[in-house]
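[Meeting: bench + compute handoff]

Bench side (C.D.) handed over the final construct sequence. Compute side (W.E.) agreed to return the predicted structure before the next meeting so the bench team could plan truncations. Sequence as handed over:
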Amino acid sequence: MLKGVGIMRKIIIMFLIFITIIGITGCSSLPFISKDYTLDINKKGQGAIVEPDANGEYEFEEDTIVSIKIDPAENYEFEKWEGENSSDLLEKDYNREWEITMDENKSITAVFDKKEYSIIEGQINVYNRMDNSVQSSSVNLSNEEKQVKNNNVSTSYKENEIIIKYKSNVSIQSTKSIEKNNSLSKMSQMKNRGNIALYRIPKDKTVPQMVDKFKKQENVEWVEPNYIYKAMEVPDDPDYDKQWGHIQMNLELAWDVEKGSNSVKVAVVDTGIIPDHPDLKGNLSDKGVDFVGGANEEPVNDYNKTDNDPTDETPYAPNDPSLNGSHGTHVAGIIGAVANNTEEGIVGVNWNVDILPVRVLGADGTGTTWDIAEGIYYAVDQGVDIINLSLGGSNGNEYYKEALEYAYNEGVIVFAASGNSGDSEIIYPAKYESTVAVGSINSNYKKSSFSNYGSKLDLVAPGGINSYGKGIYSTWGYYDSNNDNAESDYTYKSGTSMATPYASGVAALLIANGVTGVENIKERMTSTAIDLGKKGKDNDYGYGLIDAYGALLNEKIGGPYIFAGKETDGNIEIVSEVIQFSDGDYQLNNVEPGEVKVYGWRDSNNNNKIDAGDYWGKSESINTKANNSYTLDFNIKYVNENDTFSLKIKGIE
């Protein structure tokens, strides 16, 4: 009996083992069953679902994380997600990218609404001098927030120092821990301005490395290099503020690089000059000459001088434009009126330069081909570097051409006026390949109506009028025949004759700074010019507006901006189109409704910051409503290096 029970027990145990083995092997051979869920993506309004590649139904495996990207159509904006699963969306990039996890069937709808805009227009006044009332400096624009190429040639910060501002809730113990863990040596601290400290960084670390590291730390409000600033020198001549053309030429920053040299010689081949003008005589050559009315004997390049007195004999006759004082004196003042003689009016593009006055036009403002050619040959043989020809006519001739080719071959760069008839054809001698043709713009950066244009135009410069109807302010005078005396004064004039000496003046700065060779100088000026018309060279503006600072740095600097923005917590978010500012009227047509300000800025030193040397200003705040128009006038001023507060700007491309 017991034996039978033992056998039965063995049979049961073997059966259980068999069942267990079958169960184990059976379970291991069962297939893995995954679940698929459907994602239904829809849209309302004008816009696109770009990831997945269109709206519709999609199947995904369980727990798949799906990326969704949208793109509103022009003049539409994303408003919201609708649908019973809209709350499941996790936003990755504001109004552009989300993620959703597939743990059930889901349906979502992107809603796009048509944008409604307001219009803001007004007048901008640009002030030339540095002004302590300017309310913005050191406004930081990170590479992530402002996609503008930074070609600045100088790092301009202390190589082993950084500045950190900690958040207000960070304890002293925490800051000490941060200092210890990062081997920071505290050099100075400001506690009454927030918890701000100046540190010396470890020798094996660079400033960019440490700045990038601390930007990511949650206890840090901001971090930046210990930037180096220097005084921006500007002249103290009493009428300097009237010289609006100097703003457009970016001269104040240019003068911090180069002010000119009396070793650079510029010939003003024109109506002569008022030789005793107090704002010119310090920069005038003693080799001036007169060719008007002299003998016309062959060969022309032997030049027969009338005399050695280049005095302009043009009288003052207000009712006769051809007899309205000294044209040559006005041109010479733009190139090189003496700086910092505080009792006299203006400053030239060059503070120091050697101006050779060559009189080839008579008192009526006209001259012969022969006299002008003689003047060119004479100027070249006197060793000038530049010839300014603020003159011209509709006919070319061999005298001109050969004289200009002689100048070119001798390494003399010649700038000539494009003409004042508003025609689509450049006049001679500017039309010749051996010259640089210069046209005129107004203070609003638009081509002057009188300025000739065409495929031969190379550059433009200030020569028109500002919003108050004022032209280019410069030295001037007239001849008083009754007393046989030349009177000195100042006045406004307009024309491509005024734009041309701006070009000659910048070329003189380049030569003083070591740039030599006709083609090198021309390439420097054209490649760094501010593009005002169609992209690249065009018939209205040539290569663009001459930028004195950009030319000296050999860097193309970004243009001036005007835009509307919303300012919150130290950030400016741009809520309009970005247009070029002007010293005159502006209009923004696509301003998002809400409380906004209008801002004007030119990043003169191209360092992605609003800081000393830039032009910056903002309007008062205004609450705009859709489909309404508003007027806001404001000022743009030269930023003072003493202003120190920080903003971030988002939205400039």
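W.E. noted at the follow-up: Residues 21-32, 129-155 have pLDDT under 50 and may be disordered. C.D. will use this when planning the next construct.
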